[in-house]
Specification:
The chain is an all-alpha fold. The protein has one domain (9-45, 52-81, 110-150). 78% of the residues lie in helices and 0% in strands. Helix 1 runs antiparallel to helix 2 (54-78), helix 1 runs parallel beside helix 5 (110-150) and helix 2 (54-78) runs antiparallel to helix 5.
């Protein structure tokens, strides 16, 4: 049977790859959060004092609620995840002494770290997908509601 243990270079490449995917997700989330704030700002600027028929008002309210839900989901995407492992810099702050930190640094936790980062990346991508789906549905409701007002 062949040795299947990854080389140190392969471990480092995997960790770099997963970290880059997390960064890409955070960048996408930030752009989406900015983009979703524009329709909300437009609604806040255009709707006060306007006479809108009740069905359209309900649709606009539901659409705005959907956009806010998508924005909250995106905030959870970029929210730091500070739990999951008992190693690394977050735990060093709580170490009993310098020797405990040195021992943790000397141990090879790369595989554990890659697994944890992969789980974080997957959760971020799933939440981002939910946010995009929610925002798309909310925008459709808003467009339909506003079109019914104009027609």
């Amino acid at each position: 049977m062949a040795d299947t243990a990854p080389t140190p270079e392969q471990l480092e490449q995997a960790r770099t790859y997963v970290s880059a995917e997390i960064a890409r997700t955070d960048t996408k989330a930030a752009a989406l959060l900015t983009g979703l704030s524009l329709p909300i700002a437009g609604l806040v600027a255009a709707l006060p004092g306007r006479d809108i028929d009740p069905p359209a008002a309900i649709g606009v309210g539901l659409g705005a609620l959907g956009l806010v839900a998508a924005m909250l989901t995106i905030l959870f995407v970029v929210r730091p995840r500070l739990t999951g492992t008992n190693t690394g810099y977050l735990n060093w702050a709580e170490a009993e002494n310098d020797a405990a930190v040195a021992a943790d640094i000397a141990a090879d936790h790369r595989v554990e770290h890659i697994v944890q980062l992969s789980r974080i990346a997957r959760a971020k991508y799933q939440a981002l997908r939910v946010a995009i789906d929610t925002a798309a549905a909310a925008m459709a409701v808003l467009v339909i509601s506003l079109l019914t007002t104009l027609i």
